[in-house]
Predict the structure.
Amino acid sequence: MSKRSFASDNNAGVHPEIIEAIKAANDGHVVAYGDDPFTERATKLFQKHFGRDVAVYFVFGGTGANVLGLKSIINSYQAVICAETAHVNVDECGAPEKFTGCKLLTVQTPDGKLRVEQIRPLLHAIGVEHHVQPGVITISQATEMGTVYTRKELKTLADFAHENGMLLHVDGARLANAAVSLNTTLKEITADAGVDVLSFGGTKNGMMYGEAVVFFDKKRATDFKYIRKQGMHLPSKMRFISAQFEALLSGGMWRRGATHANRMAQILGSELAKVPQIKLTQPVESNGVFAVIPRKYVPSLQKKYFFYVWDEEISEVRLMASFDTTEDDIRDFIEFVRTTVK
Ligand SMILES: Cc1ncc(COP(=O)(O)O)c(C=O)c1O
């Protein structure tokens, strides 16, 4: 068996329950492109978890979910406000700019979270035709720094967006981890907080592939089926994404996987913090641990455990736990860290 490391929750395999769901869906023919019973059932589950009136569309991946979700609520003369560290800004190869035609207005944040005071200065040119018009605030929940917006912080951002003629989009590649961290339902940190459009991720929580774009006001979704097809994200064998979401959302698997990953990150973080040469840089609020490890030790650690250096300038690394991380994995890693840095 290949070794589990802490590089990414995307490096994990597929949860056995998901494999079973895919296998079970692999029976006979059903109508392609989403007109099938699996998609109908999965859609109902989204409505159960996020509210009866949501419109939900499945796509292949997270970048596609973000880009197409944004495209459907913005015009190219408008701007998307995001954290400098946001996936849409640093990890999507300019796809949001290319496909929406919009400028991203980035905000520096120490912890990956956007706050109203940081956004307000970007609104001075509203109504001035020489300037892009802020149209959407997009945030990641949990953030790329492993931090989590509280319900109050979400509501404040949503209210601020709406008061200023903008919408709130959430990149929820790790929304499950955030809900577990806050001990809330999925609805409480989306629909109830005033979120307008959500990318809901399954891949990082045990699915093989597939994400969902969720609209909390159906009226905003009227053109989405065309946008999705033109954006090359209409899966023909949709049932295999739908069956995975059904497995994830029907029996509490989403919460189990995220609870485990978050707990593993807590243990990893607290064990790392005991190593005198290592300093955590962010509170561990979801399944990510961020820490400064002195530069000279990083190559030896990476020889045995693959992981990413997040900020080269300060030798900050990112370590991620996933649904399949074990306490033994952590113990072995910490032992190796201790012998390497001494
Ligand atoms: C915050 C965030 N958003 C979205 C994604 C989805 O990206 P992908 O297009 O690789 O599925 C990721 C994956 O790493 C992510 O970390």
Summary: The chain has 13 helices and eleven strands. Residues 10, 61-63, 87, 140, 144, 171, 173, 203 surround pyridoxal-5'-phosphate (CB under 6 Å). The first strand starts at residue 55 and ends at 59. The mean pLDDT is 97.
